[in-house]
Amino acid sequence: MVPDFTGDVTASDNCTTVGNLVITQSPAAGTTVTTGVNVVTITVTDQAGNETSCDVNFTVVDNTDPVITSCATAESADADGSCEALVPDFTGDVTASDNCTTVGNLVITQSPAAGTTVTTGVNVVTITVTDQAGNETSCDVNFTVVDNTDPVITSCATAESADADGSCEALVPDFTGDVTASDNCTTVGNLVITQSPAAGTTVTTGVNVVTITVTDQAGNETSCDVNFTVVDNTDPVITSCATAESAHADGSCEALVPDFTGDVTASDNCTEPLEIWLSRNLQQQALQ
Question: How far is CA 21 from CA 17, 53, 136, 200, in A?
């Protein structure tokens, strides 16, 4: 509202006394005007109708911030091979209004700007709405970059073998130190390399598959398999051999070799039952 400026005017006249001078203004006090500099004209009129004018400025200032009725919606993106992603343009999703500036003339910006490279995690993007008077209001929206890329195993462990012990077993070695791997986000030193079965686990003869798993800090994982072969290289132990036997020669001066195998007592670290057999050489020697 335009205030009443007339009370501040000082004037005089050659004929009309000060009290009889008529002081008016245009626009009148109480008139509604908008922002900016509004010129108010003061007119002093004497009783003869002579008048003099002067101008005074009435400036209306917009000090009201815009109102954000709806901020942008949070978004997420997968990290690329460099563990980064580009910030999208959030400004188009913002709804705002202002007391003086039309919606089309509001300036909406964001920081960091669209196209900025950011890394994994929650990145806060600040949206700012500015009116033509320079008043501004801000809101924050999250842009989350997610690491969904599995580590890469460039070299799995080398297969190994071991002799079975007296119990026909061997301990699984630690294969993790031989694994070479990389990741887009996690440094090599922070990759977690595990194996199953774990090093020190007891396994028996044959090919035992050991699964190597590489896990990054985001929980992504990649696996490879390596063989651990337990070999039985231990000879059986004969604890009691067969008892010597004799037989009468027949009409051809010959005799049949008896079955000695049933009298043999033997053990082995791995094989049960044992197969006991006579070699041909022994048979010929017996026949001689």
Answer: 7, 13, 47, 112
This prediction's pTM? 0.73
The whole-angstrom distance between residue 73's C-alpha and the CA centroid of its chain comes to 19
31-35 long-range CB contacts below 8 Å, 24 or more apart? 31/1, 31/2, 32/1, 32/2, 33/2, 33/58, 33/60, 34/60, 34/100, 35/60, 35/61, 35/62, 35/100, 35/133
- Helix and strand tally (H, E) in the chain? 1, 21
Q: Note the helical H segments in the chain.
A: 280-287
Q: How far is CA 231 from CA 31, 168, 235, 275, in A?
A: 105, 9, 12, 19
> Per residue in 56-84, pLDDT tens?
999 999 999 999 999 999 999 999 999 99
> Which tokens hold the place of 178?
């031989």
